[in-house]
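Can't paste images in this forum, so I'm doing it all in text. The chain is below; anyone willing to post the predicted structure tokens underneath?
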Amino acid sequence: MTIELFIQNLFNALTVGSLYALIAIGYSMVYGILRFINFAHGDVFMVGAYLIFFGVTAAHMPWPLAALTAIAAASALGILVDRIAYRPLREAPRISALISAIGVSFLLENLGLVVFTGLPRPAVQPAWMVDPIPISLGAAGSIRILPLSFLVPLVTLLLVLGLLWVVNHTRPGLAMRAISRDIETTRLLGVSVDRIIALTFGLGSALAAAAGIMWAMRYPQIHPFMGVFPGFKAFIAAVVGGIGSIRGAVLGGLLLGTVEIMAVAFNPTLSGYRDAFAFVLLIVILLFKPTGLMGEKMEDKI
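Text version of the structure:
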């Protein structure tokens, strides 16, 4: 492999890994507090992509305003899902909430089929995102990188840093950390647990929508099932990094993106097995470190 191809694929790996990381954070946050997997998370990713599409094409919003509106609306959707599908099951066995999550996922996907139809739509890409930037490598030649390859990791870094600040330096963040350790004691201390959990769903859904928007820019086609495989892979990334850990979700996403892209780059004959690499990585990591790379053993909540 030439140095040009290596650097090009390294940027691709960083871009895809950053997107997996943003989605994986939502899985980790919800699991860290409630100890269950929100399988509807990947469908919020899909909703974010559709919202910006209609914001630009139907409402004629400027692209940045449409992106912010889509993220805010997806965040509200996450809070609504928690309020309707999960909050009534707080005291029920955990399997009930899990079944409810699967039901919400099917509902959103099929509602998307009814409302948006199953016809794939082209994502709206601003001109400045699709004009490659030439970069000279001196004697090694030159490469052309899409602005999106710089934008996605940068936006991911800023969003993750902002989330870590909220979690570690604000009162709601303190409440989140307390709930993740002992939900009943936190409630006895006067914390509005339901509001903090709703905030957690809102933040995670906002990150998923941001990932959905950037995913649609990279793979410019949207459809009602576009969140299924990225959602599965992001869940794997969360488990690999240590589910319940925000930093672990980021590490798992970047690792998964790197393995997927670089394995195919070094051996193109493996391109048909690209999706299988995620599951192989999951098995290998869990064999040697069952809690994930940055995870810690958590007590089940009764």
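The radius of gyration is 19 Å. The chain has one domain: 3-116+144-288.
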